[in-house]
Amino acid sequence: MKDNGKLTLTAGLAAGSLVIATSAFAEGEVVFSSWGGSFQDALRESMLDPAAKKLGLTIKEDTTNGIQDVRAQITAGAVAWDITEQALSDCARLKQEGALEPIDYGVVSTDGMPSSLVDSEWVGMLTYSLVIGWQAEKFGENGPQSWADFWNTEAFPGTRAMFNSVSHALEAALMADGVDPADVNTVLRSEGGVDRAFAKLEEIAPDITVWYRGGSQAAQLMADEEIDFIHIGNGRAEALNADAITVGYTWNQATTDADCLLVPKGAPNHENAMRVLNEMLSAEAQARMAVAISYGPVNAHAFETGLISPELAAKNNAAPDNMKTQVVIDASFYVENFAELQERFDTLVQQ
Fold first, then answer.
1. Domains of the chain, with CATH numbers?
2. What angle do CA 124, 346, 210 make, to 5 degrees?
3. How much is the pLDDT for 2?
4. Dist. CA 237–CA 151, nearest whole Å
5. By CB neighbour count within 10 A (0-12 exposed, 13-18 middle, 19+ buried), where does 219 fall?
6. What is the pLDDT of residue 297?
7. Taking the chain (351 residues) in consecutive chunks of 10 residues, what is each chunk's mean pLDDT?
C-alpha cells in the first residue's frame, strides 16, 4: 500500500517470491499480490487463509510496487497474478487502458458496498480517510472543525500542512468555500468547479508551511510539534495517539480514498479469482480486516457482524456515523483530467 496518508508498508517479500496459504486438498489456485510487510500479514490472517480453507484452494502471494507491475506483466504476455490490490486511481487507469478482466458479479456479491466502489472491471477493498487534525495538547478539543475553520487563519492562527496531492486538496478547498460534502464531486465536475477550487486553494497556499508527500512525513511533523493544523491520515493520527492523545481530529469533511481489487487481463485462474474476491468482500472477512488493521471495510455489513467492537468502530473511518459528512474521492475524475490538474496544482504549490 502506497504511502499517501496511510501506513507505510515495506515489501516483506522479494519480487517474484511466492508464499502459499493452502488447505489440505486444494482444488486449483489463485495468485494474489498486495503491498507486502505487516499489512499483507494482516490480510493473510483476516482474508486469505480463511478464503483458502473455505474454498479448498491454494492462495499464493506476491508483492506489488504498483501499476507498473501490472502493465509489465500484460505487455510481456506473462500475467502471473490473478488478483492484485492497487490504488483506486490506478484501477481506473488500468481499466481505461483495457488491461482488466470484467468482474463476474454473478459470483461476486457486493451487498453492503457503496456503488462508487463497484465498477465493471474493479471493486473496492478498503478505505482510508484524511482528516482535519491538530495538536491536542495545544488546542484540546478546540481545533478546526471544518475546512472553513482551517482556512480561517485569524480564528485559528498557527502552522499548517496539507497533503501534496491535487486530489484531496480540491475537495477540501470546495468545502472551505461552502460546498456541502454531498455535493463536492458534482461541483468539481461542473463548469467552473475546478476554477472555484483552485481559487480557494490560492487563498490558503501562502499559509501552508509544509506540503507533505507521505504519511510518515505527516506523522513526524505532528510528533515533532512542527505543525499545528494538518490534513492527515486517520490511521496515522491513531498511531500517534497510541500512548496518549497527541492529535485531535474530526471526521467532519474528511476526504476518503480507497484501494481496489482487480483481475489483470489474461489472468490464468479467472474463475477461482472471482470466488476469492467474493470471500474477501464478505461482511465477515471485511470485519476481520478492520480488526487486524486500521482501515475501513467497504462492506457496511461488517459493522453488523459483532466482530468490530463499538470502541473500535468509533475509530474506524468507514463506520456509518463517521462517514456521514465525508467526501469519497472520485477517482475517475482524476484519471480523466490528471495531467492538466497536476500541472496546475504543482504550479500553485511551488509559488
1. 19-127+259-323 (3.40.190.10), 129-257+328-350 (3.40.190.10)
2. 85
3. 52
4. 21
5. buried
6. 97
7. 42 40 60 91 96 97 93 96 94 94 98 93 96 97 97 98 95 98 97 98 98 90 97 90 91 96 97 98 97 92 96 93 94 89 95 83
Residue 112: per-residue pLDDT = 96
Closest by CA to 32, choosing from 23, 22, 309, 24, is: 22
Evaluate whether 33 touches 83 at the Cβ level (below 8 Å).
yes
How many residues does this entry show for the chain?
351
Single out the residue of 339, 289, 298 nearest to residue 118, CA to CA. Answer: 298
Q: Are 160 and 132 in contact (CB under 8 A)?
A: no
Q: Please give the biggest Cα pair distance in the chain.
A: 67
Q: Is 61 helix (H, G, I), strand (E, B) or coil?
A: strand
Q: 279: which 3 cell numbers?
A: 470471500
Q: Give the per-residue pLDDT at 253.
A: 98
CA 260/CA 117 separation, integer angstroms: 8
Q: Which of 285, 325, 309 is nearest to 129 (CA)?
A: 325
For residues 205 and 169, the answer to whether their CB atoms sit within 8 Å is: no
Name the region of 277 (left: φ>0; alpha: ψ -120 to 50; beta: rest): alpha
Residue 71: closest CA among 258, 214, 213, 262: 262
- Sole residue written with cell 494474489: 32
264: nearest Cα among 136, 107, 73, 135: 73
Which pLDDT does position 8 carry in this prediction?
34
State pTM to two decimals.
0.81
CA separation for the pair 16, 24 (Å, rounded): 24
